[in-house]
Amino acid sequence: MKYINLLFFTLFSFSSFGQNLTGTYPLASTIQPENTFAVANEKLLTGNYEFHLLGLNDSTPDKTLSHPNKKRVWFLATASVVGEVSGMSVLYQTWYKGIPSSSFHFFNDNHEWEQMDKCGHATAAYTIGRLTAAAWEWTGVSHTKAVWLGGLTGLAHQTVVEIFDGFSSAWGFSYGDMMGNTIGAGAFISQELIWKEQRIQVKFSAHRNDYSGYNLNGRADDIFGKNFLERVHKDYNAQTYWLSVNIRSFAKNSGWPAWLNIALGHGADGMFGGVENEWIDANGVYVSRKDIPRFHRWHLAPDIDLTKIKTKSKLLKTVFFVLNTFKFPTPSLELSQNKLKWNWIQF
Predict the structure, then answer these.
(1) Same domain membership, residue 133 and residue 32
(2) Residue 281 and residue 253 share a domain
(3) Domains held by the chain: number
(4) Residue 239's CB: how many other CB atoms inside 10 A?
(5) Which helix (DSSP H) or strand (DSSP E) does residue 339 occupy?
(6) For residue 224, what are the domain limits?
(7) Do residues 114 and 181 touch, judged by C-beta distance below 8 A?
(8) Is 304 found in the same domain as 163?
(9) Per residue in 6-65, pLDDT tens?
C-alpha cells in the first residue's frame, strides 16, 4: 500500500552511507581474526574497519568489536528517530490527511489488488531491514546484533503504518499486511543468520503506465497519482516484485557467474479498483469497466546482483548495495492469461 515510505527510508539510508563515505571513516564492522585487541580498538576509534553486509570484507565469521563506537551509535539512533518521524509526517500528509479517523478496527483486504499490496509490504520490510542492518554494523555492533536490529526495525516501521491504518475510516489494521511485513523481515533475518548472506533477494521494479480509453486516465490520476513518483509507488499495474536467486551461492563450484541471478517476478494488470473495475467519477457518474480483465503476471528473467561486482571503491560498493534494492532491467519470459509472452525489457 503506502510505499512512498520505502522511498524516503531508502533515501535516508543512502544519505547516511554517503555522508560517512565522504568523510574520514571507511566503512566497516569486522576485523581479521589475527588482530589483537589493541589493533581492533584502534580501528574502531579511527573508523578503519569494514562492513560485512556491504561486502567490504572477505571474511564472513561474526567477529564482534569489543566496544561499538558510541558516537556512531548515538548518531544512527538519532538519525533513525528523526527519519522515522519525518517519514511518518510525510505519510500522514500523503495518505491520511483529510480522511476521517475512527476507533481502532481490523480490516480484511486479502482479496484486493490481486495481492500486490501484500508483496509490497513484504518488500518494504525486507529492504528496510537490509539497509538498516548495514547501518548498524557500521557503528561497530556485531553482525548478529545488526541483523536483529535491522530486521526488527523494518517490522516495527511497517507495524506503525498498519496501526495508522487501524485508526483510519478508509482502511483498517490488516492481518494480511502484517503477514507480509513479517515474511519480509523474516526473510532477511533468517538468511543472514543461516547463511550470513542474502542468497534469495527480494527486489522491486516499476514503470509508468500510460492509460487510454474512456475515463481511464482520470481514474488513474485519482487513485495512482499524477506525477512519476506517485505512479511508481501507487500503480499496482506497473509494479513487479521479484525473488532474485543467486545460483552461485547454492553451487559454489559450478562456475556460474557470481553476479548473475535468476529472478521470479509477480505482477498484475487491469486493476482500477481494489476488487472491481467500477467507480463514481468526479462528476458523480457511475463508471463500469468490467470489460477490462484483471489478471496476474508471472515473470522469469535474469538479474544482476550488483553486490557481486568486484570493485575496490568503497563508495561504489555502497551505491551498488543500495541500488540492489531494484531489479536490473532485462528481458523476461511472461506467463499471463494462460499465454507465454516475451518482453525484450522488463522494468
Answers:
(1) yes
(2) yes
(3) 2
(4) 26
(5) strand 339-346
(6) 199-347
(7) no
(8) no
(9) 434 454 433 333 333 333 323 333 333 334 333 333 343 334 444 677 775 544 444 445
